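Here comes my example:
=====
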Amino acid sequence: MKYRREIDGLRAVAVLAVTLFHAGFAPFAGGFVGVDVFFVISGYLITTLVVRDADEGVFSTARFYERRVRRILPALVAVCIATSLAALCWMLPDELTDYGESLVATALFVSNFHFANETDYFGADPSLFPLLHTWSLAIEEQYYLVTPLAVVLMARAGLRSLGLALVLAFAASFGFAVWLSASYPENAFFHTGARVWEILAGALAALALLANPGLGRMPAAVKEVLASAGLAMIVVAIFSYREDLPFPGIPALLPIAGAVLFILFGDGSTAVGRVLSTRPMVGIGLVSYSAYLWHQPLFSFARLHVGTPLDVPRQLVLIGATLGLAYLSWRTVETPCRMRSLGGRRAVFGMAVGGMALLVAAGAYGQASRGVLQRYEGPERAFHEAMQSLQRYAAKCRWQALLGDGDDGVCLVGNTGAPPSLIVWGDSHAEVLRSGLDEALAARDMSAVVISRSGCPPLSGTTYASGDDKGRRCEANVKKDIERIESDGATPIVIAAHWSFYRKSERYFMAGTADNANDCARVDGSPYQSAVAETVCRLARRGRDVFIMRSVPPLTFNPIDRLYDRETARWNPVDILIPRSPVDDGLDALASSTLPVRLIDPADVLCAPDRQECVVSKEGVPYYRDDNHLSGKGSSIVGEWLVELVAGGSMSRRPALKADF
C-alpha cells in the first residue's frame, strides 16, 4: 500500500484536537471530534489493506490479527502498567477499586460499555478516569473482530457488491446513531452500533479509491477545493462544537464528511495535503497512537494532584510531556514490536494473551482487595472504609438492575426478603443513603426501595428551562419514577435532594405548575416551590405519608482534601466541625403551609443542639465525601436516624444523637 504522508498529518490534527480538548483549552471545546477522524482513517487504511490482500489472494486472518496485535497491544499494555503504578500511589482505595474495574474492561476491549454504565463522557471527573479514552480502542477492536472476514467474503463477489453491503451497513448504523443520540444520549456516545458508521465512512472512501483510481487524476482546482473543504469542515467542528450536541448523531456528519473528502482528494499535490505532509505534522502523526494513549492518564493524575481546572503553564507542560512520552513509546515499544525480527506469530499472540491476562489480574485484584485496603490499619483504615461503602452499594444495585428490570436507578436495600417499609426518592443525595439505610433496615428485618437519579430533581410538573438532553432524560425518569411510587401501596416516602442547588439553578423549573385537583394548598412563590407543592399534592392524594428531607449541612470545602494529602499520600486524623446555619433551600414555606408534608432535617442528627456545631469528620474519619454528599460513615448516621424517624412510625420521639461529638 502506497504510503500517504498527509494521512499521518491528518492523524496529527486528530490527536492534537483531542489532547487540547482534554487539556481544557476552551477554544478546542469540539476537540472530541478528533476521535471521529481517527475512526475514518482506521476504516480507510484497514479496508484498503484487506481488500487488496483479498484481491491478490494473499489475505490471511492470522496475519491480519497479528498486525492488529503488534499495532495495538504493546503500547497499550505499557501505558496501562505505568498508569496502574501511578494509580496505586496516588488514588484512594475507593478510587483504585473503580480503576481496577476499568482496567479489566480495557484489557478485554469492552471499556466503552463499562464507561457507558459508569459515567458521562463530558460530565466525568477527569481526575478519576485515567483510562476513559480507551473506549474508542474498544469500539475499533470490536469492529475488527468480525468485519475483515465479512469484507473478504463480500470482496470475492466484487467491489460493487461489497460497496452495496457497506452502504447498507453504514445507513443502518447512522440511523441507529441519530435515534440513540436523541432518545438515549447517555448511551449513544459509547455505543459500538452508533459508531460503526464512522469507521464504515472510511471503508467506503477506500472502496471509492480502489474502484475509481481516476479520482486522483481530477482537475487540480477541483481537488484543491474539495480537499480544503474537507479539512475546513474538521476544523470548524473542532472550534465550534460543544458537549451538548446529540453526538454521534447528525452533527457528527460534518467532521466525518470532512475526513472522507480529505482522504479522497487531499493528496500531496494539493496545498492542504502538502501542509499536512510537513515534517512536524508527519512526526506527530507517527506517534499519534502513543500520544493518544498517554495524554489522558497524564491529565488525570495532574488534576488529581492540583485540582481542576489546570492553569495554562501546567497544560502546556503536560502537552509537552505527552508528546515526549509518545515519542519514547513509539521508538522503544511500538516500532520494535511491529518488526517481525522480534518474534514470530506464535510469540506475538502469546505475549498478547499474557499482557491482557496481567492487566485483568491486576484489575481484578484491585477490586477484590477493595483498592489494596490491607495497606492501612486502625483509624486510617476506617477513613478509607468510610469512603468505600457507598461504592460497594453502587455495585450491589447494579447487579440488581442486571438481574431485575434493568434500571440501576432503583435499588432494594435492607432485608430484601421483607416487603418495603419505606421509599426514598431523589438525586445523588438519596443515592448516598443506600448504604446507611441497608445497615439500619437489615438490623430490623426491614427493607426500603431507593430511587435515585443523579442530577435530576425528584419533582413532577416541571419543564426544564435548558431543554437539553439531560433535562429531557430527567423529565422522563421523573415521570416513570412517580408512577412507580404511586402504584406501590401506602408505603411512606422520603424525598431527598440537593434542594438549594435546584432552587438557584437557572436550568430548572421555569414552568413549574401547582396541581390543585385535590384542593391541596398551593405555596405561592417561585416555579421551584410550585413544583414541590405539586409533587407533595400528587403523592398525598394517594394516601401517602410524604416526608421531605432537607439537604445535609453544606460545606464550602472538600473535607477529603484536608484529611488526605495526595502528594505525600498521608492521612491527617483531625476533627472538623462547622457552625450550624440555615440552609437556603426555599422549603421553609412548606412548614407554615397546610400541605400534607413533613419536613425533616438531617442536621438534627449531624449537629450538636447545645453547641450549634456540625460534625464533618471525627478523628480523621469523614462524615462527608465532598462538599455536599455524605460518606459511608455519614450515611450510616443519617440512615439509622431516618429509619427510626420514619419507618418506626414515631414523629414525636426524637432519636438519640448518633453523631459522635
